[in-house]
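@channel sequence for tomorrow's demo:
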Amino acid sequence: MIHAWNSYEKYAWGHDELQPQSKKGIDSFGGLGATLIDALDTLYIMGLDEQFQRAREWVANSLDFNKDYDASVFETTIRVVGGLLSTYDLSGDKVFLEKARDIADRLLPAWNTPSGIPYNTINLVHGNAHNPGWTGGDSILADSGTEQLEFIALSHRTGDPKYQQKVENVIAVLNKTFPDDGLLPIYISPDRGTGSYSTITFGAMGDSFYEYLLKVWIQGNKTSAVRNYREMWEKSMKGLLSLVRKTTPSSFTYLCEKNGDSLSDKMDELACFAPGMLALGSSGYGPDDSQKIFTLAEELAWTCYNFYQSTPTKLAGENYFFHPGEDMSVGTSWNILRPETVESLFYLWRLTGNRTYREWGWNIFQAFEKNSHIETGYVGLKDVNTGVKDDMMQSFFLAETLKYLYLLFSPSSVISLDEWVFNTEAHPLKIVTRHDGEHIGQSKNSQTSRTAARNLIFYEEAEHNVGCAAGSSSLYANGEMSCFDPFKAFPGMVGATRFFSGRTLGGKMGPVVASSLFIPIHEELPGNCLTGPGKRPARLHGNFLAILQFIS
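structure tokens (generated this afternoon):
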């Protein structure tokens, strides 16, 4: 990691990616510093403090999203929003949260479609969203269904529900016509919200949609509030089982692709995330099904490892074909430093403690060192058979490949799977319990009602207070007012501002912040619950309001 980072810092600082052989940076994602942001949490986890601090200063002082550039909603979400949010969760530094909010706000107009299925490309300055011409106007399944983890987390961290609402609506729309086998085509109409006739795959353009069905369930701490994600995922796993085949003579297990009624004996290396996903999700089944799913995970991992072992360089190609009497043959023969196989080895090691998975991971790392390590960074291979090198160090090599290899050889307490869930770019996000009947982040027992209104306290931002010193705020509790410093009184109150601007409180309320999570909900409150001395009318004039449940 140090060699990869130092090379990026020396030759491509602030650019999206490094071209090591050319010794220059390239802006593959519009000049958003993709490698730097992708690497932030890796630097933090590895304890590379000096490198992290330099990167943090660049984010704080130089990162600018005001680019007249048509960005991929998917790539920007998983790399930039995910990378910034993960680093915020790890460090607590608000600069990362504010930057994540900035870029997410620029992406939001992409969801303004007739169905709510997002367009996959958006201009970061003008907000014009569209789909690439080569999709025929359709949205891509993975690109449209792989923003849930990041945007749900952003709503939880900021207290603004709009991010979660957009991405959860996508799942609700898809669930209306979700097939019994849980398999969706890779093209989805943003007008109708239904699939267009196209390939079904756990590889490119399909993969991470299925991954996120499972991981949103984990992100919500596997409660009944997120059970629908688990149910959709289990349907999809029934479909996955229908795509499982074995080779001859060696009985390698692989996943087919489906085109109409026919199956294609092709498997992408990208689909090698599936063993880790299956292993991670196996514990949610009953004992018999759990063992069946876990065994499949191990069999697929063996196949993916052999994608590497079957080539002269011991690095995997991009995809493989399986023919009768022939175990596997490389299709597209490049290797671009992908992480999916080592990702699955990481999960299998964590869940079994079987040292075999560490040995396989070490062999893959050694192959990268032998074939991809050069003086100025790491490069992919144009051909895994000949070893001819390309000129690109992908940002995900630092975000994913090196991180998963590091964690494969780290104690299980380092980014515990009981506390964190990884997005599809390997950015860990904190698990936050969700409960039935609540809105974003609302505490289990914090339902607001007329009868419970007297248990609430109300805080106005300091700059709009009357009669309170600077730095303090008005507090109305049961009709009485006092002045206090809310951030001292409630140390957990981070970001509990900027919720809504003045509105009469006699009818529907705007945002309500509940417990220590400070998440907006909508509730009806009594018309006189926010009157100060002299029973002043309960009306705010342009100021902001947060409502907190009083915790004694």
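heads up for whoever presents: Residues 287-309 form the longest helix (23 residues).
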